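Exercise (ungraded).
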Amino acid sequence: MKTKRLLIHILLVIISFLFLIPFIWIIITSLKGRVEVLTSYSFLIKQFRFENYVNAWEAANFAWQFLNSMIVAVSVTIGQILTSALAGYALARINFRGRKVVFMIVLSTLIIPFHILIVPLFVMLSKFGWINTYQGLIIPMVANGFGIFLFRQFFIKVPWELEEAAAIDGAGRWSTLWRVVFPQVRPAAGTLFVFTFVAEWNNLFKWLIFTNSTDMRNVQLGLSVFQEQFSTNYVQLMAAVIIITIPTLLLFIVGQKKLIQGISLGGVKG
Amino acid sequence: MSKSAKRKKWALLIYLGPAMSFLSVFIILPILFLLGLSFFKWDMLSGIYSFTGLSNYLGMLKDPNFYNALGNTVIYVLGTVPLGMAAALLIAVIINRKIRAFSFYRTAIFMPVIVSLAATGIIWLWIYDYQNGILNHILVEIGLGKVNWLGNPDIALFSVMSVTLWKRIGYNMVIFFAGLQVIPTQLYEAAKIDGARAGSQFKYVTWPNLLPTTSFVLIINLIFAFRDFSQIYVMTRGGPIGSTTTLVYYIYETAFNEFNIGYAAAVSMVLFVLVMILTYVQINYFSAKER
């Protein structure tokens, strides 16, 4: 048993290392000198240059971009959880004619990538006067088929008895959903929170097309200052990448601690 | 109308209304716009457009680039979806416990999702670099020859697929985790009392109760695999000689490099119908089983 457990750990350490290699390299690059990076792809650092981080922060003017990114990512995430939970509940629990059609329509909204829908969307947002505005960056993203589908899949497994018991206690559908059913699928809500926040935080294309003023940049657009006319300042770019990754990394670490409530019975026995 | 039927109508409006109205305006309307465009020839540069009926669709039948993109897409989907799901499920089941070390593994495997591809793409280009890349460096050290990971048309697609898997496994793993958390622990306790070993616990408790999650991951992975764009854009731009041009990349190229918007819209519609049929078949298959 002990050796089996050890083997699993060794295997997982190797797998983790393989997944982490690119980030190890990002960190190494962020500490190198500018010329050193261009002349060797070595993992060894000749001289640690922590000042890259300070310079990167100042060059990109990140404080304002952090705020922009945060406002949009938080709003979209909360909006998506609300609209998705409601629609997912209807698709899983309310019997109505045309339910399957609505479900297929929801899934169909996932097929065409945003990169292709961008032309009609841009025309629409220009007509609304929403270019360079928060509402233009938030409102088109407030509903998403992914979240609706996710909640539907988790709601269908919640035992009916829970809802029936709540109904006997006189609770209506609305309060049953939020007080009884929703808490049962908290892991799904947590997952959607992390995924949506990360996707919004890392979104570059939307900001590139829907904004054109320097005030309305997000952290990803902020990285473009390191691409100078004839070369890229890789050391500062990578330092900046690490700086802007910290919020999403913290979100995941905190989130997963809450997510895994510690099922000690399932999986392999050690 | 009876009182309960009326109440149900209101409930549907409240529950489905918000999501469906946002989706209608910002996604379904643009898709319908694309559908309309697919019957036109529209040159974005000159701004001249004319109704051409089905000619965009008929042109596709004779377009070798379309078939090339379709073929690449099939390879891409088959190469990434099953492996990405199986690896994620296996890892998720193994490390689904509250142990400090496991929390480190989870974070490590999810890191590719957390950091944007704009950044990791650069690193992957360095790893795959023919002259100085770390991968070729290792190959030379152990006495093998260099491989042109992104420059050889027979290999480039697989190099891109590896990066996709690297990103997708952690993504799927987290969804599987969520699914594992909502399986009632009593079921495992009961199985344990019955003397079930890890293997049969998985077969009789985990697998059937995880089915809605598994079907979710499968359907979403297929859709994502058909619409993946960024890794190709960042690493190969569809090359060399079209060997990594998938349908979505082909649509992007025809629309924004060749400015042939009508044709790009027609290819989008073909992609749409294709994925729609695949999704419908899966929904039908699973909807009876997963309740």
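Further reading is listed at the end of the chapter. For now, observe: The first strand of chain B starts at residue 40 and ends at 42. Residues 58-287 of chain B form a domain with the MetI-like fold fold (CATH 1.10.3720.10).
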